[in-house]
Design a protein that fits this description.
Blueprint: E1 2-8, H1 14-28, E2 35-41, H2 53-61, H3 78-81, E3 84-87, H4 90-99, E4 108-110, H5 131-154
Parallel strand pairs: 1-2, 1-3, 3-4
Helix pairs in contact: 1-5, 2-5
The chain binds 4-nitrophenyl phosphate.
4-nitrophenyl phosphate (4NP) binds next to loops.
């Protein structure tokens, strides 16, 4: 069993999008009983809320179901529980590394590190922007999740 936690700021736009994409890809690969997927936010503002309406509708147009997901905040136990803790941007990464016990920090990295040729790239916060930002988040998460799935398969 391998486990992946996607982390953004609010857990209502980027990380639930990545979660829904990864759940879809894991299911298509027939690995649903081998891979655990979840998401969380570094912030507490949106705890218990469904994903942003725009994230839900742009995701649904590509076949991803964000509707059942609910926002939660990262918990210190997550650093033990998950094998890969994947930040959307450098601010998320910094906050995760601040919270993470030093022996577990090798689990924490940027999601885009798994997108071929895009190590170190960020997935920008779409919350205060327009539709193009949400489409870009979907494009980037799809690319990175393909690479992540390959890495998980290689670890089987
Ligand atoms: P997310 O986007 O981190 O991708 O979920 C945001 C959602 C809410 C806020 C900021 C970013 N906010 O300031 O409430």
């Amino acid at each position: 069993m391998q486990s992946v936690l996607f982390v953004c700021l609010g857990n209502i736009c980027r990380s639930p999008t990545a979660e829904a994409i990864m759940l879809h890809k894991v299911e298509q690969a027939g690995l649903s009983d081998r891979v655990v997927v979840d998401s969380a936010g570094t912030g507490s503002w949106h705890i218990g809320e469904a994903p942003d309406d725009r994230a839900q509708s742009f995701g649904a147009r590509r076949g991803y179901d964000l509707e059942p997901l609910r926002a939660r905040q990262i918990d210190i136990a997550d650093f033990e529980r998950f094998d890969h803790i994947l930040a959307m941007d450098r601010a998320n990464l910094r906050e995760l590394l601040r919270l993470c016990p030093p022996p577990l920090q090798n689990k924490v990295q940027l999601l885009m590190d798994f997108a071929p040729g895009q190590q170190g790239a960020e997935i920008a916060d779409p919350y205060f922007g327009g539709a193009d930002g949400f489409e870009r988040v979907l494009d980037e998460c799809e690319l990175a999740c393909d690479g992540l799935l390959d890495a998980l398969k290689a670890n089987q």
